[in-house]
Design brief:
Largest sheet of chain A: 7 strands, mixed
Order of helices and strands of chain B: EEEEEEEEEEE
Number of strands of chain A: 11
Distance between the termini of chain A: 37 Å
Strand content of chain B: over 45%
Structural class of chain A: mainly beta
Helix content of chain B: under 10%
Number of strands of chain B: 11
Number of helices of chain A: 0
Oligomer: heterodimer
Strand content of chain A: over 45%
Helix content of chain A: under 10%
Number of helices of chain B: 0
Distance between the termini of chain B: 41 Å
């Protein structure tokens, strides 16, 4: 149980285009989802927290208009990188939890390369 | 504020030797602590966690960690390293409200030499 699936696992896009990444909880209802970003050889930095049916809460320094997060259902959250630039190239990882868990479960990550 | 410090960005051991990865934390509330492993281009896999109760926590793949409140530490150990243990390891502490939000350490790369 407690499986979180991210799609796509990797994506290459042209500079200026938008990319959508999906995070799904397959066998539980995720009341809260988290989006992290990881640069090469670095740790994970939280970008935002999303609760089902409400607006995401962004961490300081994260542009909410650039990184659009939607959590419209209890099993799906999406991160859209708008007008992507090469500096947005990174590994994006989501995690999800429900109210009964003491931990959040991670997706497998999405490698974004902007060319 | 919650924070995590992993001492040593790179640890190298011989196959069969003891693995010790160090983690110290700072927390304004009784912490929930986690160790994750990450293989290249993959997500995070939970090795073990401490929430309450027994301070010695056993996890998967022979790993264990001990919560020491007096030392604010949660070091990860494994008695005998295997080649497949080579990976990146992250220690994390939950935020003060235990919402599931995690604050990660910088990570430690474990190299296992034959």
């Amino acid at each position: 149980g407690a499986v979180v699936s991210q799609h796509p696992s990797w994506v290459i896009c042209k500079s200026g285009t938008s990319v959508k990444i999906e995070c799904r909880s397959l066998d539980f209802q995720a009341t809260t989802m988290f989006w992290y970003r990881q640069f090469p050889k670095q740790s994970l930095m939280l970008m935002a927290t999303s609760n089902e049916g409400s607006k995401a809460t962004y961490e300081q320094g994260v542009e909410k208009d650039k990184f659009l997060i939607n959590h419209a259902s209890l099993t799906l959250s999406t991160l859209t990188v708008t007008s992507a630039h090469p500096e947005d190239s990174s590994f994006y990882i989501c995690s999800a939890r429900n109210s009964q868990n003491t931990e959040a479960f991670f997706g497998q990550g999405t490698r974004l390369t902007v060319v | 504020a919650q924070s995590v410090t992993q001492l040593g960005s790179h640890v190298s051991v011989s196959e069969g030797a003891l693995v010790l990865l160090r983690c110290n934390y700072s927390s304004s509330v009784p912490p929930y602590l986690f160790w994750y492993v990450q293989y290249p281009n993959q997500g995070l896999q939970l090795l073990l966690k401490y929430t309450t109760g027994a301070t010695l926590v056993k996890g998967i793949n022979g790993f264990e960690a001990e919560f020491k409140k007096s030392e604010t530490s949660f070091h990860l150990t494994k008695p005998s390293a295997h080649m497949s243990d080579a990976a990146e390891y992250f220690c994390a502490v939950s935020d003060a409200s235990n919402t599931g939000k995690l604050i990660f350490g910088q990570g430690t790369t474990l190299q296992v030499k034959p």
